[in-house]
Every structure is written in C-alpha cells, then in structure tokens.
Write a structure and sequence with these properties.
By secondary structure, the protein is an all-alpha fold. It is built from 19 helices and 2 strands. It has 2 domains: 1-20 and 169-450, no CATH class; 35-166, no CATH class. The chain starts with a helix and ends with a helix. The structure holds heme C (4 copies).
C-alpha cells in the first residue's frame, strides 16, 4: 500500500466522532478476549444471508433505523475487503504464488487465510462462498447462533455478543481482529519469504484504517448501545496491540526464526533495503545501535512511548529504557533478546491496562502532539516506518483537535496545509525517504500548532 495515500484519503473524510471519552467497552489489554471469527466454531452462513433488501442490502441508508441497512452495497462498492479474494487472481498474486512454488494463490491456505473468510468446510453454510472474500462474518463472527436472534424486537447488543457476534466496537478486540490479518500473529503471518516473493509491505494504524472502512454512523444511538467512539483512544490501543503482536512474533519459537536468521518481517525493512551507495546511516538515540546492525522495527513502540509519556510517565519511561535494552540485546544473542522482549512485553501490557482507564482530553492531546514532534526533531524518525506512524498520528491528533472545537478554523486550515504541503509529500517515496525533510515538516507543524 502507499501509506501516504491512505492518510490523505482519510484527511478528506473529516471524522465526526466526539473525543475525550471513557473506555467502558475496552476489554483487558492483553491478547486475551473472545475467539476471533476465524477461530470460533460457529458456522459462517455467507454474505447472501445478510444481503436481503430488508436486512443490510438496501440501496439507500434507512433514515429511521439504528443502523444504515445499506452495509452490503457499501461493502461491495467501497470496501477493499470485498475484492480481497479476487486480488488472488491478479498478476501480482500469480507472480507471488509462482515464486513461492504454490500451484495457485486462490487455492493456497497461506493466502486464503487473510484474503477470504477461510473457515473449515464443515463450518460453511449453504449460502457461503469463498469468492465473497472478506465478508461480513470474517469480522462480525459466524452468524449461526445470532442471525435470527439479532433481529428480534427484544435483541440487545450484549445478547448478540453472547450468541457469537464479535465485539468489533471494543478497541482492543477490534485491534486484535484487524491485526490478525494486517500484521499476522500466531496462526497466520506475512513472512519475509512472502514479502520477498513480492507481497506489499504492511503497516497498520487502527484509527486511520477504521475510518477508511467505516460503514456505520457514530450517532447518539450508536453511543448509547456501544459507548462513545474516540479516535485517539483507538490510535493508542492500536499501537499497544501492534507492539504486542510484533514482540509476540519475535518471541514465538515457531515464527520467530527462519533457519539461521530470525524472521525478518519484524525488523525494519529499509535497514536492509536501500542502496549501499547512499551512506545514509545516522545515529538514533532510541536504539543506541551503531552502524551496520539490523534493527527491530520499533515504530509502534515509539508511538506508544509518546502516548504513555503523558498517560502514565512511569510506564513511558520503562518503555523507552526497555526498547533500548531490546535493541542492544539483539546484538548480543537469542537468549538476551528473549529476556529483553519478555520484559518489554510486560510493560506494553501495563500500558494497555493504563489506557483502559484513561480519558483523552484537550491537555493530553496537546502534550502528546508536543512529545511526538519533539521526538521527531530529536531524530527518532530516521526510519521510514517510524515516520509513517508519526504522520498518521499527527493527522489523527489534529483531527481530534478539530472535533473538540479547541482550535479556530484558521488554525486547523493552517495545520492541514502544513500536513498536505510538507508532511505527506515527505513520505511519498519510501525508497528515497529523507529524515531531514520530514523533520522540517514537523517543525512547520510545531510552528502552526497552538
Ligand atoms: C497475514 C495475512 C496475509 C497473508 C498470509 C497474505 N496476505 Fe496479501 N495482503 C494482506 C493485507 C492486510 C493486504 C493489504 C495491505 C495494505 O494495503 O495495507 C494484502 C495485500 C495483498 C496484495 C495487494 C492487493 C492490492 O489491492 O494491491 C496482494 C497482491 C496480495 N496481498 C497477495 C497475497 C498472496 C498471493 C498471498 C499468499 C501467498 C497473500 N497475499 C498472503 C494480508 C495477507
Ligand atoms: C473488516 C471488518 C468488517 C467487515 C468485512 C464488515 N464489518 Fe461491519 N463493522 C466493522 C466494524 C469495525 C464496525 C464498528 C464497530 C461496531 O459498531 O461494532 C462495524 C459495524 C457494523 C454495524 C453496526 C453499526 C451500528 O450502528 O451498530 C453493522 C450493522 C455492520 N457493521 C454490518 C456489516 C455488514 C452487513 C457487513 C458485510 C456486508 C459488514 N459489516 C462487514 C467491521 C467489519
Ligand atoms: C481476514 C483478514 C482481514 C481482516 C480481519 C481485516 N482485514 Fe483489512 N484488509 C485485508 C486484506 C487482504 C486487504 C487488501 C484487500 C485488497 O487490496 O483487495 C485489506 C485492506 C484493508 C484496507 C485498505 C488498505 C489500503 O491500502 O487502502 C483497510 C482500510 C482495512 N483493510 C481496514 C481493516 C480494518 C479496520 C479491520 C478490522 C476492523 C480489517 N481491515 C480487518 C485483510 C483483512
Ligand atoms: C536483514 C535484512 C532484511 C530485512 C530486515 C528485510 N529484508 Fe527483504 N530481503 C532481504 C534479503 C537478503 C532478500 C533477498 C534478496 C535477493 O534474493 O536478492 C530480501 C528480499 C526482499 C524482497 C524481494 C526483492 C527482489 O528483488 O525480488 C522484498 C520485496 C523484500 N525483501 C521486502 C522486505 C520487507 C517488506 C521487509 C520489512 C518487513 C524486509 N524485506 C525486511 C533482507 C532483508
């Protein structure tokens, strides 16, 4: 994907959520929670079971309904997930399959597990079709037990959840779900071998990606049923969950190794993939590493550290120290890396728990934006992956300021112009990314910020 185009598309669709709210629906911060839709035993009945005109298959949104009811049409036309299976027939997929020695991408579980709702055959209902791609039930859970119950007059959200509807509204659980494909983990992973065959590089940000896939309205009845949405909270939770997944892959005895080397997909891609003639190495205090070393991709940890420096400075400090220790440990050996990774994982989980009880109000947004920008000016976004997350973060925070009404329309317009004219262009070409240009853009945003 081209991350800057994702960010740009988002900026055009001004978010309407209110900010500064509580986290009632957040489950425990760790990896625990209900089984993912791909893991539970409920049968998946197929998109056709949702798509009737009186259900979710209306052409227009219903004005008086709690939900839009045109979700199917929206999904078909706007949601890339509806095309995810078809993608496996395109030239890029054919080339990937050929290089990996697969007979066909659309028949390989390795691809189908993330590009379709690839539940076991005996869990597929009569109307189920693999070719529907990432369908409603791939996210909302197999509908076997809740399909008829959720339309009953006395249906409640809690009741639906009990019958196997997946809690997509809960940020931790949503993050687990999205990241199970948008990064991978225990049972599926885009390995460096898959990347090496040509799979696009992956980067995820929960708030941005949620907005891009929004087929529902944040109206008062939504808040009443599911809690008040908060993009900044989603961003924070997404960073904690992604950091957790990255460490989990590094520590996993099965996925963490690839022969002589560790699984490279959790390392900074551009640390290896750039021209030798560039002589572009420079020190980053946050890693403490010297030249010529493969770096763990700490982009999510970097964001989480800035968030926690405001939410809970003690944990923020620990994250900074333990990230440094992990980087150092990767130059020592496997055992040292494991120990450092475990220590860091405990702090990431502590961060996740602290975020549960936290309300992001105006002062905190200010402080987090300040910390993010200072970190950049201090040279922490030398790596493209860090800058990519920082740019999505800056954009999300400015959107939150806009929603809160704390800034004048002129201030917002100026910040938006600096993002469009300086920050996003600095991200356009990942192969020729220049950290100094990105820092210049951050300085302009700092000058335009209140
Ligand atoms: C762990 C999940 C996962 C696995 C495994 C996986 N993919 Fe993907 N794939 C994704 C995600 C997520 C994206 C979208 C990335 C983005 O845009 O951020 C993607 C994007 C792609 C794209 C680009 C799509 C486009 O619209 O340009 C192709 C092509 C592709 N995958 C092919 C494959 C093939 C072939 C396989 C099997 C060898 C495979 N993928 C395995 C998750 C996965
Ligand atoms: C990639 C994951 C994904 C897919 C695919 C998906 N959804 Fe959703 N859906 C979500 C998320 C995330 C939310 C917002 C959180 C919530 O309210 O549960 C949501 C919310 C909804 C809502 C609730 C709106 C409200 O006001 O409570 C409905 C209804 C819905 N989706 C229907 C569908 C239908 C029908 C399909 C298939 C045509 C579909 N979704 C496909 C992730 C997905
Ligand atoms: C079953 C695996 C799977 C799950 C679960 C999943 N995705 Fe995806 N997602 C994909 C794949 C594969 C693609 C690429 C599809 C394509 O290009 O045709 C994709 C593409 C996207 C894109 C478009 C990215 C771009 O580059 O334009 C967004 C946005 C997105 N997903 C958001 C989400 C969100 C939000 C969630 C969680 C609520 C989620 N996804 C859950 C597999 C998944
Ligand atoms: C430790 C160094 C290292 C890291 C880190 C690394 N790669 Fe690689 N990558 C390699 C090597 C070595 C090859 C094989 C090159 C060859 O065969 O000529 C390769 C091959 C590739 C190729 C195929 C290039 C080609 O010419 O066909 C792609 C694409 C790729 N990597 C993407 C990635 C992505 C995306 C990441 C980050 C998630 C990443 N790599 C991280 C070392 C690395």
């Amino acid at each position: 994907m081209n991350p800057s185009s994702v960010v740009r598309r988002l900026i055009q669709s001004v978010a309407v959520a209110t900010s500064g709210v509580f986290l009632s629906t957040m489950a425990l911060a760790g990896a625990s929670g209900p089984l993912l839709p791909s893991q539970s035993n409920d049968a998946h009945l197929g998109v056709a079971s949702c798509a009737s005109a009186v259900c979710h298959g209306s052409v227009q949104a219903f004005p008086d309904s709690t939900v839009r009811r045109n979700e199917y049409a929206w999904w078909q036309t706007n949601d890339p997930h509806a095309q995810a299976y078809q993608v496996l027939y395109n030239d890029a997929s054919k080339a990937i399959a050929r290089k990996l020695g697969l007979s066909a991408a659309h028949e390989a579980d390795m691809c189908l597990d993330c590009h379709a709702d690839n539940v076991p055959v005996d869990q597929r209902g009569e109307k189920f079709q693999l070719s529907d791609g990432i369908s409603c039930e791939a996210c909302h859970g197999g509908a076997e037990r809740w399909l008829s119950a959720h339309t009953a007059p006395d249906a409640s959200h809690a009741g639906n959840l009990e019958l196997g509807l997946y809690p997509t509204e809960a940020p931790v659980q949503r993050a687990r779900l999205c990241l199970s494909c948008h990064l991978g983990g225990e049972d599926k992973l885009i390995t460096h071998r898959i990347m090496g065959a040509g799979h696009p590089r992956i980067s995820f940000e929960l708030d941005t990606f949620t907005e891009l896939q929004r087929h529902y309205d944040y109206d008062p009845d939504y808040s009443e049923r599911k809690g008040v949405p908060d993009g900044v909270r989603d961003w924070a939770v997404g960073q904690a969950t992604a950091a957790r997944n990255m460490l989990g892959i590094l520590l996993d005895p099965q996925h963490g190794r690839d022969g002589l080397f560790p699984e490279l997909v959790v390392f900074d891609c551009h640390a290896c993939h750039h021209a030798m003639s560039k002589r572009q190495w420079g020190r980053r205090d946050g890693t403490g590493l010297g030249p010529g070393v493969v770096r763990f991709n700490d982009a999510y940890l970097l964001m989480l550290r800035h968030i926690m420096s405001v939410v809970n400075p003690g944990i923020g400090q620990r994250l900074a120290e333990q990230t440094l220790a992990l980087h150092r440990a990767t130059t020592v050996g496997r055992q040292a890396t494991h120990q450092a990774g475990e220590n860091l994982l405990a702090s990431v989980d502590a961060a996740g728990s602290a975020l549960q009880a936290y309300r992001f109000a105006g002062d905190a947004l200010d402080a987090i934006l300040g910390s993010l920008i200072e970190g950049g000016i201090a040279g922490e976004y030398r790596d493209y992956a860090g800058a990519e997350q920082a740019s999505m973060a800056v954009q999300g925070l400015i959107a939150a300021f806009e929603r809160s009404g704390a800034l004048s329309p002129e201030q917002i317009a100026r910040l938006t112009a600096e993002m469009d004219e300086s920050m996003f262009p600095a991200m356009d070409d990942e192969e020729n990314y220049r950290p100094s240009v990105f820092v210049g853009a951050l300085r302009k945003i700092q000058a335009a910020a209140p």
